[in-house]
Specification:
The protein has 5 helices and 6 strands, in the order βββββαβαααα. By secondary structure, it is an alpha+beta fold. It has 2 domains: 87 residues, AF2212/PG0164-like (Elongation Factor Tu (Ef-tu), domain 3, Beta Barrel), CATH 2.40.30.100; 65 residues, no CATH class. A hairpin with a 7-residue loop joins strand 1 and strand 2. The radius of gyration is 18 Å and the shape is elongated. The two termini are 34 Å apart.
Length: 163
């Protein structure tokens, strides 16, 4: 894995109600091969382990790491605090859950080919969206929606009308 940063950063927050809390990471360039320049990372914020997180576009070629509420709560950090961040580019191969593989096998060869023709980022986005569901019913709905999008020639980040 490629080390992206290892330094102290100040916790910031976007203004307004519901504004995201984040750490701005200057010096890490967006990845032009991924939608919006996202970079999938893993690492640590202080002692909290980060897995499969995305660095998000901030503007002016900079990225930021969102600090979700559970991270802030566990570390007892808030806007203005300093945190130590160590991040690596997450180059781990996409792990396909068996239930998605099974559903793809039940579909036509055409649907399977469309799924595997998607970029790694698109396939990863579908998988992460499906496995992030809080219950089985939502996972099933998301798998069905993925199959419908593939049938229409769409990916996770684009629809047929956007081409």
């Amino acid at each position: 894995m490629d080390l992206l940063c290892e330094d102290k950063f100040v916790v910031e927050k976007f203004a307004g109600k519901g504004g995201w809390t984040y750490v701005l990471l200057p010096g890490i360039a967006p990845d032009s091969t991924n939608p919006f320049g996202w970079i999938q990372v893993r690492g640590f914020v202080n002692t909290y382990e980060i897995k499969q997180a995305k660095l998000m576009p901030f503007g002016k070629g900079m990225l930021f790491l969102p600090l979700k509420a559970d991270i802030r709560k566990r570390l007892s950090v808030k806007e203005g605090d300093t945190v130590f961040v160590k991040l690596w580019k997450d180059n781990l191969a996409l792990q396909m859950p068996q239930e998605i593989l099974d559903c793809l096998q039940l579909e036509s060869r055409h649907i399977q080919d469309r799924f595997y023709a998607l970029s790694e980022a698109e396939r990863r986005a579908f998988v992460n969206w499906i496995i992030s569901a809080r219950n089985d019913e939502t996972r099933v709905r998301r798998i069905v929606e993925m199959m419908r999008k593939l049938e229409r020639g769409e990916g996770f980040y684009f629809s047929k009308s956007s081409h």
